[in-house]
Amino acid sequence: MREDWEEEDEDDLEATQEACQTFKRLIEAGHGVDVMSLWSGAQKADVTTIAVSLREVRPETFRFVENYRFRLTIRTMTCGEVTLTD
């Protein structure tokens, strides 16, 4: 299911793309990367963790989503794994 996003400022979009490219470089260098975007006051129970493959999601389409923890990878996701796709 694809959701419509609110219009984002061009500077914010560019910063997100740069962050995504940095995450990918870190993973390619052998580092693990988890990213969280939280609403103020969010509790641990409010956070959903999902795997996101930066091989399958391009920097231009990657978005931070509040109350989600992204376990980032560059490998192709297998059947049964949850991933965000373009």
What do these coordinates show?
With 86 residues, this protein is an alpha+beta fold. The chain has one helix and three strands. The protein has one helix spanning 10-28, and strands at residues 33-37, 48-53, 68-73. The longest helix has 19 residues, at 10-28. It is globular, with a radius of gyration of 13 Å.
Could you give a short description of this structure?
The protein is of the alpha+beta class and about 90 residues long. The protein has 1 helix and 3 strands, in the order H-E-E-E.
What is the end-to-end distance? 10 Å
Provide the β-strand percentage band: 15-25%
Which residue ranges are poorly predicted, with pLDDT under 50 across at least 5 consecutive positions? none
- Give the H and E element order: HEEE
Number of helices: 1
Average pLDDT figure:
83
Strand order of the largest sheet: 1-3-2
Structural class: alpha+beta
The level of helicity is 10-25%
Shape: globular
Summarize the biggest pleated sheet.
Answer: 3 strands, mixed
How many domain regions?
Answer: 1
The beta-strand count equals 3
Radius of gyration of CA atoms, rounded to a whole number? 13 Å
